[in-house]
Amino acid sequence: MTRLSLRLRLAVAGAVATALALGLAGVGLVALFGTHVERRALAELSVHLDQVIAGLERRGDALVLVTPPADPRFARPYGGLYWQVEAGATDLRARSLWDYALPLPEDTSQDGAPHVHQVPGPQGGAVLVLERRVSLPDSLGGGAARAAVAMEAAELVQARRDFARDMAPYLALLALVLVAAGWAQLVVGLRPLRRLGARLGDLRRGESARMGTDWPGEVQPLAAGMDALLAEREADIERARARAGDLAHGLKTPLQALMGETARLRDAGQGTAADAIESVADAMQRHVTRELARTRSAARARHARADVGQVVERVISVLRRTPEGGRLDWQVSGARGLMAVIDESDLAEALGALAENAARHAVTRVTVLVSKSDDGGVHLELADDGPGIPEARLADLMRRGARLDESGPGEGLGLAIARDIVEGAGGSLRLENGARGLRATVVLGAG
């Protein structure tokens, strides 16, 4: 459940809650309908009971029901409606009871007070009974009489079932409508989160500088916090650039002084010491250049764009005019017009380092392929037909945290600067041995 999207989790929870609520509502409605049906049935039985009591007359010494209720079901055996009168030794029953007597429970109800019972009926099922105890006048022989009318309880049960069956499609339709409405509400309510993801993508690609303020009140604090973090990050980068610049300018004068010392040492006949100092000063200068390139590319890559194909053609055209590049067959192919999130000069510097390394090791040919990557970015492969790199050394090169400039000849500072530039632009650089020679793969974000 934790891997489901927030929208799907809320939709499932809403659908379950809707189903439970409508289920409980359906049960309640059926119960209320059953109560209403029973109330209507008792009202009908009360009318029949009044007709039974009103129709009693005295004929000779016998108490008879001269005017029975008009409903024909009383006259049909097991017709579903029944009446019964008990007055002393007299026991009168409807034809519908046939030879069955309703087993009325013993109670001490007051005269005229109706009582409701459920007792076994003539067909084995339960019947709903409404009975009343009355005092007969002298004209009817006096004494007490117990009159009752009944109906099959199965009719009430069937009425509830019919009501539930008729109501079920409407409840199902209502559930679908409510679930659809809940989904629409989720789509509208969670739309700011989708916009939030899109805005983050814009920030990563450099198409936006800030989250902005056009957010609902619930999302605005998050957007404001992210903008504050972005501002702090830019300030840190700017301070780092300033420190790198200060470091470069601070080392420039001492390095120039060292180079001046080497000239004086050579004039004094100490060429070996001069060469050692020049080697150290040159290494320091290269490291300073590398750090400046890394800082510069990281600072401007977010808002930069470059046509990868054009930069490749420009770099290759320069290398073709060099002694090492002029002897090789440069094969450039792939898509045109692919834009990447990187500064043109930085991309040219990185590709130049990779291409120069390929030209040094290639035998006859260097192949360059530009294409669109699976995630929509820019995929660039540069391969030579040279001897490649031993697998043990290649594993060290690609190990996380390894420095390319410490891995031996041919994979020096130029490749390290290329990696720093590509990673500073949010891309990746991978080195691997191909079928023949070394292959460098660069992946950059689409611009």
Give an overview of the whole structure.
This is histidine kinase. It is a single chain. This protein has 447 residues and is an alpha+beta fold. It folds into three domains: 8-159; 220-299, Orthogonal Bundle (Helix Hairpins), CATH 1.10.287; 304-444, Histidine kinase-like ATPase, C-terminal domain (Heat Shock Protein 90, 2-Layer Sandwich). The chain is 52% helix and 19% strand. The protein contains ten helices and 14 strands. A five-stranded antiparallel beta sheet has the order 4-3-7-6-5. A five-stranded mixed beta sheet has the order 9-11-12-14-13. The longest helix has 49 residues, at 6-54. It is rod-shaped and about 165 Å long.
Oligomer type: single chain
SS strand fraction: 15-25%
Proportion of residues in helical segments: 40-55%
Number of helices: 10
3D shape: rod-shaped
Q: Give start-end ranges of low-pLDDT stretches.
A: 400-411
Number of domains: 3
The order of strands across the largest sheet is 4-3-7-6-5
Largest sheet: 5 strands, antiparallel
Order of helices and strands: HEEEEEEEHHHHEHHEEHEEHHEE
* Structural class computed from helices and strand pairing: alpha+beta
The whole-angstrom Rg is 49 Å
Distance between the termini: 36 Å
Tell me how many strands there are: 14
Mean pLDDT: 82
List keywords for this structure.
447 residues; alpha+beta; Helix Hairpins; Heat Shock Protein 90; 5-stranded antiparallel β-sheet; 10 helices; 14 strands; 19% strand; rod-shaped; transferase; histidine kinase
